[in-house]
Amino acid sequence: MVQKLTTAQAIIRFLKAQHTSLDGKEQPFFGGCFGIFGHGNVAGIGQALQESADFPYYLCRNEQAMVHTAAGFAKASNRLRTLVCTTSIGPGATNMLTGAAGATINRLPVLLLPGDIFARRNVAPVLQQLESSSTQDISVNDCFRPISRYWDRIYRPEQILTALPQAMRVLTSPAETGAVILALPQDAQAQAFDFPGEFFEHRTWTVPRCRPDAVLLGEAVRWIRSATHPLIIAGGGVIYSEATDALAHFAAQTGIAVAETQAGKGSLCFEHKQSVGAIGVTGTLAANHLARNADLIIGVGTRYSDFTTASVTAFQNPSVRFINVNVAEVDAAKHAALPLVGDALVTLQELTEHLASHQVSCEYASEIARVRSEWNAEVDRIYGRRVGPPLSQGEVIGLLNCALAPKDVIVCAAGSLPGDLHKLWRPRDVKAYHLEYGYSCMGYEIAGGLGVKMADPSREVYVLVGDGSYLMMAQEIVTAVQEHIKINIIVLDNHGFSSIGGLSRACGSDGFGTEYRYHNGGLKGEPITVDFAANAQSLGACATRAKTYHELAAAIEAARKQTRTSVIVVETDYHDRIPAYDSWWDVPIAEVSESRSVQQASRTYQEAKPRERFFWPMPQQK
Ligand SMILES: Cc1ncc(C[n+]2csc(CCOP(=O)(O)OP(=O)(O)O)c2C)c(N)n1
Ligand SMILES: [Mg+2]
Question: Among 78, 453, 474, 572, which is 20 to 30 Å from 297 by CA?
Fold first, then answer.
């Protein structure tokens, strides 16, 4: 039966009917809509939401933050669910750009509905409209085009009949997912149309488990059999595909060690005998040692960022070759790999079957055991140091790792914490380590943590955030308070950018501009103290300060018992840093400078850079 609805009403009605299914388990795809209203959406999407009491609406404090919340929600839900975000036109819309780029880079589905300028045009330029002298078919929303996986502008109501199914195809595709933008001109949102009733019926999008090509799989099995030093790199795809048990089984059966990217961390429990932890720039000594000599890398669900490959220096064996298991062809093909384009779970199961009697050599197995135990001793050493106050970041991480329950989630994104967590955190549950490190966006932490908690309220969520990131985006504490959502926030206050300060010193630039100090001629004055606890309290959280190890332990214990969002502020040592373990990151140094330290850094850089490699197809593949 035909239903007369506005475009906005029809959109909300359609979204409510969409579901995803993986292995027969079904759930509604959208958990509700975040937004901030302005003239560009209040009478359109706003009015439609008001009429839809069964589709929750959440008011946030900043449009960028709500996209992080949606992405955090989607990541915690293994991409089977997400949230919608609605904004007005102009600045409300462009505030979402950073969040959209983050979602697309991290391959996380988010549906963004920015308001847009009038389709009718006669009243242009409207408030907040960007004008062009060469076309009337442009608005600030065109900025979303390169950072989204699907982009459309809805000039007429009936366009949603084809646009929304395409939007859903992309959002639920494991290979293509990312930010989807439907720009909604203000007048088109309120316009009525006779929509076909079938459009609003219950719809299930089955997430497929594609199988790799049989010939290539056979070839991969031969490569694995003939490799003497194979190493698996587990990326986020392992977790999204729910392939962690299959990976654990495959690794145990073959004895092949497993290293993890940031998105893949938690794929294996740290106690698994084949787990060698983080790889790459922020990798462990164990994983980086094995990677250097490996003759075969089996990448599963990884996109090989420079942090994973140590700027393509991680693999130094002259005859190393790659097998890549990935749903996305673009990733499967990287480093001239033998591409197994397929789902991680079914591909690992097939490989396990074909390699039933295969094991790595005893020598290689004992090498893996040795580097594992050496690395574990190093983590114990760092956890056991007592240097504070101010505490070292390693102490804080060690304390948290011991204090938290296995299913508690830590959330983090930028600064020096992600690298230290990647190295030191000992994961015991697959969804307990939530790092946004594709975009490493300062400000993700609290907003993203809110989304993580919304996705699984049964878990305690601990947001670890540096003072710099906190200052960029703390306001979503108010949203958490408004929704009675409890998250635990730990602010590590080291009075500036310890990460970039360290990088600056490594580049010979002496930490220039990376500490929070009074300006007094070059940001070299006294440190500026910020009362983060008072700030958090003013936003509605309960807040405490912890100086010593024992105070921090007590504060964590007290936060767990709290029913409200709480903030613990702990001062950490700006200079007490966890070292890198045999890795390199390509950050080009000025080739000309009067500074001796820059000249020295430049020489070191020029010496190290030739270790970067290109990989070409092996003769077998021709
Ligand atoms: C939005 C954004 N701006 C800039 C950067 C570059 N950046 C990376 S880490 C960092 C400093 C982070 O400071 P803080 O949160 O205090 O963490 P710390 O480095 O002290 O551990 C900066 C500026 C970024 N990642 N994101
Ligand atoms: Mg800091």
Answer: 78
Token pair for 450 = 């809110």
Residue 336 has, within 13 A of its CA and on its CB side, a CA count of: 14
Q: What angle do CA 520, 522, 526 make, to 5 degrees?
A: 50
Q: Is 254 in the pocket of ligand 1 (CB under 6 A)?
A: no
- Amino acid identity, residue 277? G
Chain centroid to CA 140 = 26
- Which of 444, 499, 516 gets mutated to test ligand 1 (max ligand atoms within 8 A of its CB)? 499
Q: Is the CB of 466 under 6 A from ligand 1?
A: yes
Q: What's the mean pLDDT in 61-87?
A: 98
Atom of ligand 1 nearest to the CA of 416: 21
Q: 612, 620, 584: which is closest to 336 by C-alpha?
A: 620
DSSP SS3 for 515: strand
Q: Is 436 in the pocket of ligand 1 (CB under 6 A)?
A: no
CA-closest residue to ligand 1 atom 11? 497
Q: How many whole angstroms from 522 Cα to the centroid of ligand 1?
A: 20
Measured distance CA(331)–CA(589) in Å, rounded: 29
Q: Please, are residues 148 and 167 in contact by the beta-carbon 8 Å criterion?
A: no
- Distances in Å between the Cα of 305 and the Cα atoms of 153, 310, 521, 537, 614 are 32, 8, 38, 39, 14
Report the distance separating Cα 109 and Cα 177, nearest Å.
5
3-state secondary structure of 388: coil
| Paired tokens of 297 | 């890398």
- pLDDT tens figures, 246-303: 999 999 999 999 999 999 999 999 999 999 999 999 999 999 999 999 999 999 999 9
Q: Say which amino acid occupies 219.
A: E
Neighbour-count burial of 6, counting CB atoms closer than 10 A to its CB (0-12 exposed, 13-18 middle, 19+ buried)? buried
Q: What is the pLDDT of residues 524-533, one digit of tens each?
A: 788 999 999 9
The sign of the CA dihedral 499, 503, 506, 509 is negative
Q: How far is the CA of 384 from the centre of ligand 1 (A)?
A: 27
d(CA 39, CA 301): 42
Question: In angstroms, what CA-CA distances link 89 with 94, 135, 280, 458?
Answer: 8, 18, 41, 36
- What confidence tens digit (pLDDT) does each residue in 422-436 have? 999 999 999 999 999
Length of the chain: 622
Residue 521 pLDDT greater than 80, yes or no? no
Q: What tokens does 113 get?
A: 């509905």
**Which of 516, 428, 447 has the alpha carbon at shortest distance from 66?**
447
For residues 164, 169, 174 and 180, what is the CA-based torsion angle, rounded to 10 degrees? -30
- Buried b / exposed e over 215-244, threshold 16 CB at 10 Å, is ebbebbbebbeebebbbbbbbbbbbbbbbb
